[in-house]
Structure formats: C-alpha cells, structure tokens
Design a protein that fits this description.
Chain lengths: 307, 307
C-alpha cells in the first residue's frame, strides 16, 4: 500500500467502500428478500380472499381506492384506524419529537409535513437549526472533553501507562460507557416495558436512533392505545434520549478520532511522507499546523477551561 | 454574556436550544395540525361511507383487519397494491440504496428489515460501517480541503484580501456551490422529471436527503409504475447523490467550522480567557494545543499533501 501513489490509494479506499456497500446489499437481499415476498404474498392472498368473499357487494376498484387512500395517508403519518386518543397527530409532545428528529437528523418519518408551508418551514428551520446545533455541540465539547481527558490522565498516572495506551484505554472505556448507557440500558428498559418487542428489536431501535439513521419502522408505543399520559411521557423520554444520545455519540466519535492509532491510519492513506513530528505531539511549525486538518491531541494533565 | 460564569453560559445555550426546539414545534403544530386533522377526518369519512354502503355484506371487523394488515406491511416497506414490477422489494438496486441510507445515516425507512437476522445484520453492519465511512471521509478531507484552500489563497492574493476576509469569502463560496450543485440543481432536475411534484417538494426532498434527515415521506419514482430500467436508473442516481452529497456537505461544514469568526464565537461561549495566541495562528505551546479541540486553521499558501 505504501508503494502506491496517493490517488491510487484514495481510489482503492473508495472502491473498497463501494464494494462494502454492495456486500451489505447482497447480504440483506438474501436475508430480507424472502420474508418481504412472503409478507406481500400473504397480503395479496388476504386481499384476494376478501374480494372473493365480499366482492359481489363492492363496486370494482372501491376497495383499492380505500386502501390506497389509507396507505397514502399513513405515508404522511396520518392513521385511519385507532381511537381518538391518537387522533391528535401534531400535539405539542409529538411536534417536539418531530423537531428534535429534524435537528438531530434522525428523521423517523412517522410524521411528516403535509402542507407546502410546513415543508418550507422544515427546510428553513433545519437550515438554520442544524448549524446552531453543531455549534452548540462544539461548545459543549470544549467543556466536556477535557473533563474526560482528566479521568484518562489520572488512570494513566495511577497505572503508569504510556500516553498512547492511556488514550486507547480511555477511548475504549468511553465507547463501552456510551454503548452501555445509551444502547443497552435503554434497550433493556424498552424490552421490559413492551410485551411484544424482542430484545434484539429494542437494541435495533436504540442503535438506529443513536446513529441518527432513524428508519422509523419501529416506534415504541405507537398504535397501542396507551394512556395519553404514558404515551406523552414516553415521547419526552425519547426526546431526551435523542438529544443526550447524540451528544454522547459525538463525544465518543471525537475521542476515537483523536487516538494516535486512528490518526496514523488516516494519515497513512493520505500522504507519502513518513510520520512526522505531529504524531509525537509537541510544538508544530505553522506549515504542519496548516496541513493537519485533524484535531490536536486531547489534553493530558494540566489546565482545562472552567466549565 | 462575558460577565456570566462559564456554566451559566453553557446553561443559557442549552436552554436557548430547547426553546428553539419548542418554538419550531409550536410553529409546525400551527401549520400542520389542521391539515393532518382534515386528512384524517376525510379518511374516517371515506371509511364510514364504505362501511355504510357495503357494510351489510362484510362481517364486523373484516375491513379493519384487512386495512390493519395492509398498513402494518407498508410500515415495513411492503406494498399491497401495485403490479408486479415493484413487487421485487429487495432487488439489488433497492438493497444498495438501503445500505447507502444506513451508512450515510439518512435512513428513509421506505424499506426496513423484517427478519430478526436482517435487523441484527443492520446493527452490526452499521456499527462497523459507520466508523469506516467516517474514516474514509477524514482521509478524503485531508486530500480535498487543501485543494479548496489553494483556490481561496489565490483569490486572496489576487484581490488583496485579509486572510480572515478570504476565508469568509471562500466558505461562503463553497456553501453556495454546495447548495447550488447539491440542492438546487437536483431539485430542478427532479421537478422537471416528475409531473406532480412542486419545486418546493423537490427542494424539500433534496435538502432532507443531503442533511441525512431522511424522513422518507416523498421518494421519487415510487408507486408510479415506471419502467423498471428507468426506476433502477433513478435509484442509482439517488445512491450517487447520497454519497457525493454527504461528502460535499461534510467538507462545507468543516470549512465553515474552521472560520476564525465561527471559532471565536464558539470560544466566546467556552472560556473566560480573552482570545489567546491560537486565533492568531502560529506556533502553539503544548498546553494550548491540548486545550484546543477545534481543528487548526486550514492551509493558507504552501505545501499541501499530494493527492
């Protein structure tokens, strides 16, 4: 790899990435193709049976029209079934959850704007709100990361580890903490609260929300006829989870990206120069500072901004 | 603001953020509440009419059962209507689009895994693939950002601007370029290709995809009975759009976050020290290097890694 020219290395990286995309697609196709076809076949059979049994009373196409209308409405988050307690789609807790899903870029899609004004507002709100959120996270990061580094520095001193080892241990510890507190624990809570949801599905939901993917196929509490107070409590819990979880995720990603091992790997793919003084820490010349677009090493011991 | 203690400043920031969330929720509630209620009322009326006209033939609950099954299937991306050409839900182009929506964290949700194995695979695939994607973007960033900076440096020399002005102009230029190439242009193309989609809806879709929110309420081409070749071409176009658009977005965000003005603002909320030597560039002491968690200034003139 070291003998290749930089553009060839980048090309290999990109091609490798696309191959990984294709591999994932092939595996999912194998895993999911049959169940989806089976479900579709079952649905079609149900529809055919319905038509056969009761079709004599129904004008041609009336059922399809009704189904189509119901399906289209659901695509925009409006349910046609269910009693009145879930009829208020855009009540304040739901609207709050929606705006949070916009600003965390999760975007579940269980609710979506119908009107042109709503769509335009979403675009503007996100265009202004996303940079503001990023700035907030950057500000909080300056406050919180040194706190975490101080723990790492204490551990390094206590166990007499090299800085690189201490950094790795700290990053691993933070990763486990985030995974435990923000994926496993919420998944266990969700699993115990919802009867018909397996632990895997709960982990799948928590992970999808935390990584801001937000497929929206499983949303806890929806369509179950829960008491409104419980439902709203759940929505507020999800809201807090999205906001805190994203912050925790970004802090963990930042910590990992500052690891000397990770930075060395990224640099390896980049330049053809051998590792320079940057990786050994210390004082950098202005050129090297300008070349480096990765954040500097985290604080070892020493002063940290008051927070 | 400067007289407040740091934790009070952070508290104000967080409270301000939550207020902005609430304000967005209130506006959306006002804009979207009535249309959603109207749509639901229409649906309920249609259902009631259907029941009234043909209910005599149908056993109680049979229609609700059928509707429920169709709606539940759609929540997992399986359509009950439509002809066979869209029956193959997990064909390779669709599966590729799905894995790309996972790794870009867009997560439209128009398709979602049904089987436990599929869900588990998605969690593992994303857990491994997301960090790999981030590393790829970091590597490409080291290559591409200096190229952009060189343009900025040339403009700065040619028009004799101060470095701060040049950086601002470059960031603004890049922002406009990304907005034009990755939001406006695709929206115009989408608008001209799809008859029943307004320009606002096209911009709303492009913006939602680029920002990785991915609500999934509007997906071009779905359910329109397009010729399969055209539909797959469209899927590949969307795939490339997601991947390239995310890269462009991240580069633009990186460029903006390195602006002296932005960094000063973030620092202002952070420490109570006046602006230190870091913002003037130049050689930093190890303590100051350790304190700073923001990326160093982008390359001015000078050497850049070969790419």
């Amino acid at each position: 790899m070291g003998a290749l020219r930089p553009w060839a290395r980048y090309g290999l990286l990109v091609v490798g990435h696309l191959l990984a995309l294709g591999l994932g697609a092939a595996v999912l196709q194998a895993l999911e193709g049959p169940p989806a076809l089976r479900l579709q076949a079952n649905l079609r059979a149900e529809l055919a049976t319905f038509q056969a049994e009761y079709g004599v009373c129904l004008p041609p196409g009336a059922l399809e029209e009704l189904l189509g209308a119901a399906l289209a409405a659901q695509a925009h988050g409006v349910s046609s079934l269910g009693n009145g307690s879930e009829a208020r789609n855009w009540d304040l807790p739901s609207a709050l959850l929606f705006t949070a899903s916009l600003l965390t870029t999760t975007g579940y899609g269980h609710m979506a704007p119908l009107s042109a004004g709503g769509k335009a507002f979403c675009v503007l709100y996100t265009a202004l709100g996303l940079p503001a959120s990023l700035a907030l996270v950057a500000a909080l990061r300056r406050c919180l990361l040194p706190l975490l580094s101080r723990q790492g520095a204490w551990v390094a001193m206590h166990w007499q580890l090299t800085p690189a080892r201490a950094a790795l241990l700290q990053a691993a510890g933070l990763g486990l903490l985030v995974a435990g507190t923000f994926v496993l624990l919420p998944a266990l809570v969700l699993w115990s609260l919802q009867g018909d949801c397996s632990l895997l599905e709960a982990i799948y939901f928590c992970f999808g929300s935390l990584s801001t993917i937000g497929l929206g196929d499983l949303l806890p509490g929806r369509g179950r006829g829960l008491h409104p107070v419980l439902y709203h409590l759940g929505q507020f819990a999800l809201l807090g989870y999205l906001l805190l979880g994203l912050l925790a995720m970004l802090l963990a990603v930042e910590t990992f990206s500052e690891l000397p091992q990770v930075r060395a790997m990224v640099k390896f793919f980049g330049s053809s120069d051998p590792l320079n003084a940057e990786d050994k820490g210390g004082i950098l010349g202005q050129d090297e500072l300008a070349l480096s677009t990765l954040p500097p090493p985290e604080a070892a011991a020493g002063q940290a901004p008051a927070c």
